[in-house]
Design goal:
It holds the Pfam family DUF4914. The chain is an alpha+beta fold and 644 residues long. Helix content is 27%, strand content 24%. It contains 17 helices and 31 strands. Strand 3 (63-73) and strand 4 (76-80) form a beta hairpin. Helix 1 (14-22) packs parallel to helix 4, helix 2 (32-39) packs antiparallel against helix 5 and helix 10 (446-455) packs antiparallel against helix 12.
């Protein structure tokens, strides 16, 4: 095709420019509407198959493989994948192609060869395809870094998903701000190589230099590339510059008395980040079902006449950029995304989240739905999830939605009053003791907050990602696996200890931000979903920034949980004491609790040993040594004072 005018002032690696100029057709969309039309395929729908001729060494020649289908709906496009495996992010798909420091699998170590030849073949293949090239700001329009993506034209839905997440921008706008544009990252999409180079597995290869982070995506589910691949870029930049992009949601909570509290919620995938920004689920009579006893079937309900108003701040990627911090003593955050990748597995019928459902069904612009059933020219409904081959609904249905379409969304930086950490917990009973022993709310000093973020335990049917066979076996038998530093470790390309040091400094420096643990799914013998998280949010907000008196706290029976509350009162109602200390539940008891505490403590000790290297911050070493000797909560507080 030759030179592309829009890219004339963009500094590109020679091989990338050669691929673009070799392409028979390059489209640089001028508007989102144009990109949306491209996503529907050359015929404009109603169903567009994203397919490729793949040479799989067959005597019959190349095989046509359908990687995805795009269905034109009234309110957007429904993207679906023929294989169940492609509907969730594979946690073992990251490979590192460069020689910079990393603890992640290097390409050469996994495949026994250098990435260079495959990189060359990838760019040559892209040069043979019609392409759509889109710019974006990795990290969002305000604080992000100029980047671009090269995507096969027939997979334009992928480019649409990317720019919906990162924000629409044109090369002209970027050049007006930056002059000659030097991308900080480039994303390449080449689906056929999933079959020819990776035996059908998802693969995302990162090739880093100090000035450029290249991401090679070899599959079309955007989770590990357009979403978490960009997260990887931000973590890489942040580690070099001394700041963190947290794997977190955040919400500003305004009580019925007009007190405002900003809560930032972290945790492993499935740990309740999206749910932190959701309203209480109420029964038809207005009461709130807190939980149901898994042994007796007894429901536990409370009455809350008026709950706090919620204003979402971030959904999943929370920018803690150095330029935002103002010395206030509280962490300052902003959204790292212009659009949100919302998992809707907990929407199963009409009316469960009316405001969000309205935004999906009557959007201001057509949306991208993934793993949602799409009927041509009908309305895609967020509770009609694609069925897996087992006949069960896909556990990872998603909607990509512009954050401006979310009701009451906050679009300015906010100071964080409380950082909560969510953990999926299985049921724990006398007959079947497990680690599901966390009370509804635990207050922890920064040292313990750091320990939980180093481990980021994951278990109890995580819906967001697939597990390896070994992980699935551990979880099925009541165990935990670690998602690693900050729960963003799966997306980080550097080293664990460097990430741990950076996270520790962030926690200690934010001396006025309070730290809390809260479970989801179960509290002891009660199945609770996310009610524990929501009641914790309500309680902390009504305390005015999460402030608590020292005499309201009592050491938890398991020291890793820090402090439990003596009592929790909302609207004059006391939350059951057995929810604050599950060992007091009749169906749990001390013996089952202590067995669960043993499981957690052993797991933490085993996972933390890897951090004890010469590169670890001395304070971090002291904290880990307290864990290894089964120290008391006072030992952690002696290292990092508790702000109450």
């Amino acid at each position: 095709m030759g030179p592309v005018p829009q890219l004339s002032a963009v500094r590109l690696p020679p091989a990338v420019r050669a691929a673009i100029e070799a392409s028979p057709r390059v489209v640089v969309p001028a508007t989102r509407d144009e990109l949306y039309r491209l996503a529907l395929g050359p015929a404009g729908g109603p169903v567009h198959e994203v397919a490729y001729d793949v040479d799989v060494a067959s005597d019959e020649g190349p095989t046509r493989v359908v990687e995805a289908t795009v269905t034109r709906c009234r309110n957007g496009i429904a993207v679906n994948y023929p294989e169940d495996y492609l509907r969730r992010r594979d946690p073992d798909c990251m490979r590192i192609a460069d020689d910079l420091p990393t603890d992640k699998p290097r390409f050469r170590d996994v495949y026994g060869e250098e990435f260079g030849p495959l990189k060359t073949r990838t760019l040559e293949w892209l040069g043979s395809q019609e392409l759509v090239v889109v710019p974006f700001m990795a990290g969002g329009p305000t604080y992000g870094y100029p980047s671009l993506a090269l995507v096969p034209l027939n997979a334009a839905f992928f480019a649409l998903t990317l720019v919906d997440l990162q924000g629409w921008v044109t090369f002209e706008e970027l050049q007006a701000q930056h002059g000659e544009l030097t991308p900080r990252s480039v994303l390449y999409v080449a689906p056929p190589f999933r079959h020819t180079a990776f035996a059908g597995r998802q693969a995302v290869v990162h090739d880093r230099t100090p000035d450029l982070h290249e991401v090679f995506a070899y599959n079309l589910y955007p989770g590990p590339s357009a979403k978490k691949g960009v997260f990887s870029v931000l973590l890489d930049i942040g580690q070099a510059e001394g700041w963190v992009t947290a794997h977190a949601s955040a919400v500003r909570v305004t009580t019925p008395y007009d007190n405002e509290t900003v809560i930032m919620h972290e945790g492993a995938s499935g740990g309740g980040k999206s749910e932190m920004c959701q309203e209480f689920r109420r029964q038809d009579d207005g009461r709130i079902l807190m939980g149901t006893n898994v042994v007796t079937g007894e429901p536990y309900v409370i009455t809350l006449a008026e709950s706090s108003a919620l204003a979402p701040v971030t959904d999943d990627m929370t920018l803690c950029h150095a330029s935002l911090q103002d010395g206030d003593g509280r962490l300052v955050i902003a959204d790292a995304e212009a659009g949100w990748f919302v998992r809707v597995d907990n929407l199963r019928s009409y009316g469960e989240d009316v405001a969000f459902e309205r935004a999906c069904i009557h959007p201001e612009q057509p949306l991208v739905f993934l793993n949602i059933q799409g009927v041509p020219d009908a309305t895609a409904l967020p509770w009609e999830h694609t069925l897996d081959s087992s006949g069960a609904p896909c556990p990872n249905p998603r909607v990509v939605i512009d954050r401006r379409m979310i009701r009451n969304v906050v679009s300015r930086p906010e100071h964080v009053d409380v950082r909560t950490f969510g953990v999926r917990m299985p049921a724990c009973t006398r007959e079947h003791p497990t680690y599901g022993i966390m009370g509804v709310t635990h207050v922890v000093p920064p040292a313990l907050a750091w320990v939980w973020r180093l481990i980021a335990p994951r278990g109890d049917k995580n819906p967001s990602i697939g597990e390896s066979r070994s992980e699935a076996t551990v979880i099925a038998h009541g165990g935990m696996v670690s998602e690693g530093v900050g729960s963003y470790w799966p997306f980080a390309t550097g080293t664990k200890v460097a990430a741990a040091n950076l996270l520790l400094r962030q926690l200690v420096d934010a001396s006025r931000t309070r730290y809390v643990l809260t479970p989801n799914q179960h509290v002891g013998a009660y199945r609770v979903g996310f009610a524990a998280e929501w009641i914790t949010r309500e309680y902390l907000a009504r305390r005015g920034g999460g402030r608590l008196r020292r005499d309201q706290l009592v050491p938890a029976r398991c020291a890793l949980f820090g402090y439990a509350l003596r009592e929790m009162k909302l609207d004059g109602q006391l939350v059951r004491p057995t929810w604050l200390a599950p060992e007091k539940q009749t169906q749990v008891g001390v013996d089952a609790y202590d067995e669960g505490a043993r499981v957690i403590s052993s797991f933490f000790r085993a996972e933390l040993a890897q951090y004890l290297t010469d590169d670890l911050d001395p304070l971090g070493r002291a904290i880990i040594e307290v864990v290894l000797k089964d120290g008391a909560v006072e030992d952690y507080e002696a290292l990092t004072p508790l702000h109450v």
